[in-house]
Amino acid sequence: MPVAVKKTKVGRFGGRSSSGGSGVETSALRPEQVEKKPPCRVGCPNETKIREIITTIAQTEARGRTYPESYKLAYELLIERNPLPAVCGRVCPHPCEGECNRQYKDGSVSINNIERFVGDYAMEHDFPIPKLTEERFSEKIAIIGSGPAGLSCAYQLARRGYENITIYEAFSKAGGMLRYGIPDYRLPQEILDKEIERILKLGINIKYNTIIGKDIPYEKLQEDYDAIFVGIGAHAGKKLGLEHEDAPNVMSGVEFLNKINSGQKVEVGDKVLVVGGGDTAIDAARIAKRLGADVTIVYRRTRAEMPAIEEEIVGAEEEGIKFHFLVAPKELIMNGDKVAQMVCQVTELGEPDASGRRRPVPVEGKTITIDCSLLIPAISQEPNFDGLDNLHEGKDWVKVDEKFQGCLDKTFSGGDVLNLGLVTIAIYQGRKAAETIHCKFRGIEPEPEPEQEVVKQNRIVMSYYVEKLRAQATHLSPEERVKYLDKEITSTLTEEQVNEEATRCFSCGSCFDCGTCWSMCQDQVIHKPLEKFQRYTYKLDLCKGCNKCAEACPCGYIEMKDPMTGKYAPRTEDGKVVYQ
Question: What is the distance between the alpha carbons of residues 235 and 258, in angstroms, rounded to a whole number?
Fold first, then answer.
């Protein structure tokens, strides 16, 4: 893109008159500090303040804090929106890292591992959860389900002063799919227990082994409570639709994981066959491997289309689990009352379907047959609406508006009962529903998120930052980890690793007091404050609009603005300012 330069006589704030021009190349543009949104926050479904959390640690010494003080501040920033940081630090597939601008230099910042460290450190040092107000409110709220959505909703309401919150949980322990759908080697139950206990200590009541719609009619809750949040999750596995899949050695992925995580013994035999490509399929396969079986996963698309977390797929491959791609279940062959083999239709990929992935198309006349002692279909899951038919229509799941309010009176909802998604999405939905409930009770409007430009790759001066390799957590070897059902595979980063990793953050869109703009300005326009991390000021009457400060700013914080029009100058594809 061509750069248009005007030769003007510079007056106060870059007056445009060119009469009596000195011939010095100047511009009407003037620098302005504009904080922007980092791409990691955009990538986080819960809009966590990732940049602020990481730079809090990175700037510890420069701000005269101790590291424990910074960890506490980072924790308080984390739990503004996420009450389960130690959990999410273990199970979230970290889409935030896929947006991190550092990936274009030497690898994304290890955001998820930093979150895990902060969560673990907070548990170890018993950091309290600060409430948002000293006010106390008497409205009664019922939460159905203690999964991540329900816990998040209850947590946010308790922090806002609501003292009459009751969670109704169908199982004997809290956590929902976090407890009954994720293996202990990924999420130890003691970690989950500690974070749930911290939430309940806010004054939240919980009633276990209580099924709404069976033990208590939903209508009774509508009579007794001022608001109801429905977060029942999706604990029912979908069937393959084949004859004989009601055989005793056929068990859905969610049922299999539930039994294992509940401490029940499951006979898997010597050959386990898992159907599916999602996280439940991978988790079930890896558990079966730990129980001593030879395990095969069949998936109707290719590895590239598998929706499971990449690290988990790699883990399964390392542990010796076999994969058959481009095959789909066709027929079950019996031996007595049990399934002994599954005939699979060979497929090929056709045009993309509604998911955006290419549709598997049968290859005429081609099948393969695979032996099995246990068949685990893990193709999907759905909510169980027994006794709750009034919450949905037909085959639809629960529907809500943009504020997570449902169609029934007093009803709000979030989590997998709306649509299968990440733990982080469920936490976000529970949080937003709590905000809606609070605003309705108090007669106020929710505060909108400020509109901010997102810092793109071309706004980062990569050469400013020193190359540093991403911190790597240690892992058990495949040979060691398959010996245990509950031994955690991945370790938490050390304190030294976290402190070093935090310094890899570019601080996209937020000044970190590097002083580059001040050192680049030859006209003494920029005033650098004596105390660090104070706002820099400008003597704009001395400014020629040369834009060096804006282009040299490593994190994309400084813009060039036309004071006459109030508009910011556009940038070329490589981040250069277009003069005006």
Answer: 9
Burial of 164 (0-12, 13-18, 19+ CB in 10 A): middle
Please give the helix or strand (H or E) that residue 272 lies within, else none: strand 271-275
> Is residue 508 within 8 Å of 41, Cβ to Cβ?
no
- Give me 33's structure tokens: 């500090």
Q: Which amino acid is at 93?
A: P
SS3 7: strand
- Token digits for 331? 């027929």
Identify the pLDDT of residue 10. Answer: 39
CA distance 118 to 138: 33
Sheet holding 411-413, edge to edge: 205-207, 162-168, 137-144, 227-230, 411-413
The bridge status of strand 294-299 relative to strand 526-527 is unpaired
Domains, the chain, in order of start with CATH, read 6-35+511-568 (3.30.70.20), 39-128+461-502 (1.10.1060), 137-235+383-442 (3.50.50.60), 237-380 (3.50.50.60)
Over residues 223-235, the pLDDT tens digits come to: 999 999 999 999 9
Q: Give me the pLDDT at residue 580, please.
A: 63
d(CA 294, CA 285): 9
pTM for this model (two decimals): 0.93
Q: What is the DSSP string of 232-265?
A: ----EEPP---TTTTSTTB--HHHHHHHHHTT--
- Interatomic CA distance for residues 119 and 106, integer angstroms: 26
Rg (CA), the chain: 28
Nearest to 88 by CA among 64, 114, 59: 114
- In the predicted structure, residue 444 carries a pLDDT above the cut 50: yes
Contacts of 538 (CB under 8 A, 6+ apart): 30, 31, 525, 526, 527
Confidence category of residue 25, pLDDT binned at 50, 70, 90: low
Q: Which residue has the tokens 């066959």?
A: 273
Tokens 């027929």 -> residue: 331
pLDDT tens per residue across span 163-191: 999 999 999 999 999 999 999 999 999 99
Run of H or E including 11: none
Residue 220 CB contacts under 8 Å (≥ 6 apart), including other chains: none
Distance from chain centroid for Cα 321: 27
